[in-house]
Sequence to fold (468 residues):
Amino acid sequence: MIKSFEIYSDKLKFGIRLLPRFHYYTEIVKKRHKTKGISYIYLEKLSDKISDGEHSHIKRNKEKGIRYLYGRNIKEAVINFDAISDDSFIKKEDYNYFTRTHIKENDILISIYGTIGKSAIYKEGYVGKAGIPRHIANIRLKKSSKLTKEFITAFFRSKIGKWQLYNLTTGNIQQLLSLKNIKKIEIPILNKKIINKITSIEVHLLKYEMDAVNLINKAREIFYKNLNLKINKNRSELDFKVKASDIFNSDMWTPKYMSPIFKETLKELINKFEIIKLGRISQIKKGDEIGNDNYIDYLNKKDQDTAFIRTSDIVNHSADPFSDFFVSKEINDKINQDIKSNDILFTKDGKIGCVAIVTKNDAITIASGVLKIRLNELAKEKHITPEYLFLVLSTAETGFYPSLRRTVTASTIPHLREDRINDIEIPIIKKNKILEISEIIKKAFLLKDKKTALIKESSKIIDKLLLN
Fold:
């Protein structure tokens, strides 16, 4: 059904924007809220500071220094750690010199360039000391603010929040949410009990995520201690020699496949542990490409639609419940991917080697660049659990190295073929250590599952109040 309404020219805002949905929000939705006693306040009225990060180019590296975030690291309610495709650090002296990079504990970070409108609260204990570039804005609330930082990020995530953010975005090729427009974002002032409830939910979900990250790191330390590898993984090998016989005996003739650091790491693992190929202990099936015409954006999704998980939608080893696109129930039922709790997701195209475990609150459909890995009976005989396999595949020496050495680039996009993934070598450490690691990872993903449930709950509460 076509909706129509009129608006006078003196009510046009933000550069006389002739966007019907923008003015439908300002003229219809807000007036409806007013009858319910819901008022609005400009974000700048609540804030001490609204700024973006450093505009100058600062050289990055992968190894050490101050963490320097990309816009794509800001996800809904959490900050993503992406060691695969990111050069995550800048030198301390650069951080000290470029003071515009500086952020403080409890600042709201929001992505404002490219993929816009995703927001999270900065916690140094979770992210480490960090700085931001121009693609991220930070919002620092006044101590006297009527609304909490947790409530505001939850509002940004709601449909009404997204509606407003998208309508304030400019740009044709690259989307931009300007600082001027951020200041004029209107935040609803809801009942204090609702604000407190949302705040409590958001505090708990971030705590669950932080605790889960710490547990995964703890399990990885145990794994590394048991591997006890002597290889210097930081060494540089821009050139090396290979025996002709090694090439002729191999079915991959690429420099990466012959790289000494990859080969020597595998040799050390073979000498220390029983090794079994991934294809022997699992069933591996890739996802489906449903076509752009079937993508559903967040504003148009229905409750029964599923998150469409592409390679960019693996966030801190979880499937992002707020992915860029969603899939209708009809299409999801038709392709019937049979995704279950404890299945492992593994990215094989573009950004290769991102790993996640599916939890019970994940309602997802996976794209063709993502694999579903499910353990078989032989894995059980070898005492290999989904949690242990997750840790193996998400650890550089046992997951990323064997993936990278088997990756080839078609045109400009890296690919890892499914048959190559079958050959990834899984080291089997002592049974008691596998079980110890598995229990820790299981606790981590129980927390992540609770986080997923809570992040959906807070968004639904706000949507229910503001959309009805």
